[in-house]
Amino acid sequence: MRNFKRIDVWRWLIIGFVGAYLLIPVFAMLEFSTRGAPGERSTEAWTAIPTFPKLLSSIFSSLQLAVVVILAVVFILVPTMIWIHLRLPHLRRYMELLCLLPLTIPAIVIVVGIAPTYRALYQVFGSSPITLSFVYFILVLPYSYRSISASLFSIDSHTLSEASRSLGASTIRMIAGIIVPNIKVGIMSGAVISIALVLGEFTISNLLNFETMQVVINLLGKRDAATSVAVSLAALVFAFILLAILPTTNRSRSSKLKTNRKVGMVIK
Amino acid sequence: MSAAIEVKLIGLSKSFGEVKALNNFSLEMAKGELVALLGPSGCGKTTALRALAGLQPLDSGKIIVHDEDITNLPTSKRNMGMVFQSYSLFPHMSALENVEYGLKMRFRKFSSSERQKKSKELLDLVDLASHMNHFPHQLSGGQQQRIALARALAISPNVLLLDEPLSALDAKVRSQLRDEIRRIQLEVGTTTLFVTHDQEEALGIADRVGVMKKGVLEQIATPAQLYDKPVTSFVAEFVGLTNPIEGEVRNGKINILGQEIEVLPGSVTSGKAKALIRPEAISINKESNANAQVLTIGFLGSMLRVLLKLNNGSMVTAQLPSSDNPNYKIGDQVLMRINPVPVFAKEL
Fold first, then answer.
1. Which fold has domain A52-249?
2. Could you write out the three-class secondary structure of chain B?
3. Which domains does chain B have, with CATH numbers?
4. Taking CB atoms and an 8 Å cutoff, what residues of chain B touch A178?
5. Mutate which of B50, B88, B144 to disrupt the A interface (most A C-beta within 10 Å)?
6. What percent of chain B lies above the pLDDT cut of 70?
7. Residues of A with CB below 8 A from B155's CB?
C-alpha cells in the first residue's frame, strides 16, 4: 500500500515537472505577447498580426505547403508503400532505407545538395514557396514511412487484398476501398507529424530564401518582438489543435464500434 | 461424371525455385460438383486453388471455365468466390457491407436497395441475418467464416473456392460449419473446389476427393472408392489408418496369417510385400489357436480401438464395434482374422 502511494507521488511529480517544462515557456510567450503599459495587459501584438501583409502571406504559404506535402504523402507515398508491401516485398528494406535516409542528413547538407536542383526548379515552376514541397516531402518521409509501415504490418493486407480482388475490385479500388481505410490511423499520424514539421521548418526555407512562416516570424522578431512571439504562439496552438483534432476524427468510427460491441455480444 | 464439365485445369505447372508445387496437374469438375483436394502440407493443393482464382501465376498450363480460357484473365474478372483460411472479412465494414462489397464491385447497375436485399438473403442463408450490423471483431471465428461464405456466394461465382476455411476453428464449430457448407453448396448448386489437409473434412462433404502429392494428383475418386480402392500406397496410407502386415503376393492374392486376400490393382504383383489393412477389416476372437495378444484397449464410444501384438512381434491396431465386444482384457490371447476385402499391397 505504501509502495503504491510512493509510486503515485513519483508519477505526479514527473507529470508536474514535464508539464511545467512544456507549459511555462508557453505561458511566458502569452505573458510577453500581451504585455502593455506597466501593470496592464494589451492585445496590441495580437491585433497587429493581420497588419503585416508578408506575415499573412507566409502563413498562407506554410499552410499550402502542409496541404501539398500531405497530398504527396497520401497520393505518392501511401500507394507506393502498399504496392511494395503487397507485390514487391523484396524491395521493402530498400524502400525503408531510402525513406529513413533524410533523418541522417543534416538540413544544411540537404540545402547544399539541393540548391542546384532548385535553380532548375525556379526556371520551371518559378520562385513560389510551394516549390519547397519537393524538399519537405523528402523531409517528412521518415516519419510518414514509419507510421504507415506499422499500420500495414498490423493488418493482414495480403488476404484482404486478395479477397477484394476476387470479389471484382480493381487494384485502385482495392487500395482505396480496403487497404487505406484499414491503415488510416498510420496515415493520420504521418499527416499530423508532417504538418507539425512543415509549419515548424526554418533552416531549409531560410537558406533557400523562401518566405515561409518561420522565416517571416524570425524577421519580424528583429523588428517587433511581441508580434513575433504572438505569431509563434498562435502557430504552436494551431499545431496543438491539429494534433488534437486529427486523431479524434479517426476515432469516431472506433467509438461507434465500441458502442456496437456493448449492444451485441458474440454468439457462438 | 455424367454432368457437363464446367472447370478444366489442364497440365498446370508451377515451380518455386527447385520445388515443383504443381507438376502437370490436371483436374476436371462437373457443374454443381464439390471436389476436395487433399494432401499434406506443400503438396500443391493451395497453389492449384490459387491458380484457379488467378492469384497464382503459372509456368504453364491452361484453365478453362464455361468453355472460356481464363488462364490469363486477372483475378478481378474471373468471378470466383473465395473463402480464405485466415479471417478475411474487411474489418472496417459491417457484416452486411462485407456481403454487399462484391455486388458493388461487379454489379454496378444494382441499386443500393437491390444490393441490400440480396445481401440480406445471403446472410439469411448462413443464418446470420440478425448479425448484419456487427463488425468482424464482434463475431466469433465460425460466424466470420459463414459471412465470408455469404460474401463469396453473393457474386454468384462460377466456382466457389474454399481454401482450408475450417482450419482456424475449434473441433465442434468445424464439424458444424462443414455440414453447413455442404448444405449451402447443395442449395445454391455452385461448383466448388475445397482445399484441406483434413481427410475427415474432405471425405465428409465432397462428391469427389483428389489426393495430391508433390504437385501431382495421385488419385481422384469418390470418398468410398478412395478409401476402399486406393491406387497407390500413398493414397492408401494417407486416407484413413492402415496396418502394414507382411505377406507374399502370388496370383493376385497376398497370403497373410494363413489367409489368402485379393490385392488391388496397382499393388505389388509378386513376391514379398506389405498389405495395408484397415483397422476395421480386422476381427478378433478368443480361441485356443491364438495368434495375437491384446496390449491396450481404447474406448471410442461406438467403437473400440484394440492394439494387438502378433506372435511374430509386429503391432496391429484393430477397430471393433463396442456392442460386439465380449469384454476383452489386456493380456488376452486372441485369434486375429482379416475380412476378405481386397487390400493394397506395397513393396517392403
1. MetI-like fold (1.10.3720)
2. CCCCEEEEEEEEEEEECCEEEEEEEEEEEECCCEEEEECCCCCCHHHHHHHHHCCCCCCEEEEEECCEECCCCCHHHCCEEEECCCCCCCCCCCHHHHHHHHHHHHCCCCCHHHHHHHHHHHHHHCCCHHHCCCCHHHCCHHHHHHHHHHHHHHCCCCEEEEECCCCCCCHHHHHHHHHHHHHHHHHHCCEEEEEECCHHHHHHHCCEEEEEECCEEEEEECHHHHHHCCCCHHHHHHCCCCEEEEEEEECCEEEECCEEEEECCCCCCCEEEEEEECHHHEEEECCCCCCEEEEEEEECCCEEEEEEEECCCCEEEEEEEHHHCCCCCCCCEEEEEECCCCEEEECC
3. 5-233 (3.40.50.300), 241-346 (2.40.50.140)
4. 90
5. B88
6. 99
7. 167-168
Inter-chain contact B92–A164, Cβ cutoff 8 Å? no
Q: In what helix (H) or strand (E) does residue A105 lie, and over which residues does it extend?
A: none
**Position B34 pLDDT exceeds 70:** yes
Question: In degrees rounded to 5, what are phi and psi of residue A70?
Answer: -65, -40
User: For position B190, what pLDDT does the model report?
Assistant: 93
Chain A nearest-CA distance from B102, in A, is 5
Distances (CA, A) of B128 to A202, B100, B105, B122: 58, 14, 23, 9
| Helical segments of A178-224, H only | 180-182, 184-200, 203-207, 213-223
B296 touches chain A (CB under 8 A): no
Cβ atoms B43, B50 nearer than 8 A? no
Residues of chain B in contact with residue A261, where contact means CB-CB under 8 angstroms, are 137-138
Position A1 scores a pLDDT of 59
**Closest-CA residue of chain B to A162:** B55
Three-state DSSP state, A267: coil
Domain ranges of chain A: 1-36, 52-249
Nearest CB neighbour to B82, from listed A163, A170, A181: A163
Low-confidence ranges of chain A (pLDDT < 70): 1-2, 246-268
pLDDT for A267: 32
**DSSP code at position A34:** T
Beta bridge partners of B306: B297, B318
* Cβ-Cβ contacts under 8 Å, B87 against chain A: 156
Contact state of A170 with B76 under an 8 Å Cβ cutoff: yes
ipTM of the complex: 0.85
Which residue type does B347 have? E
Q: Which residues contact B244 (CB under 8 A, 6 or more apart)?
A: B274, B275, B276, B277, B346
> Distance (Å, rounded) from C-alpha A251 to C-alpha B330?
66
What integer pLDDT is reported at residue B164 of this predicted model? 92
Nearest to B321 by CA among B277, B282, B276, B278: B282
Contact B178, B166 (CB under 8 A): yes
Looking at beta carbons, which residues of chain A come within 8 Å of B76? 165-166, 168-170
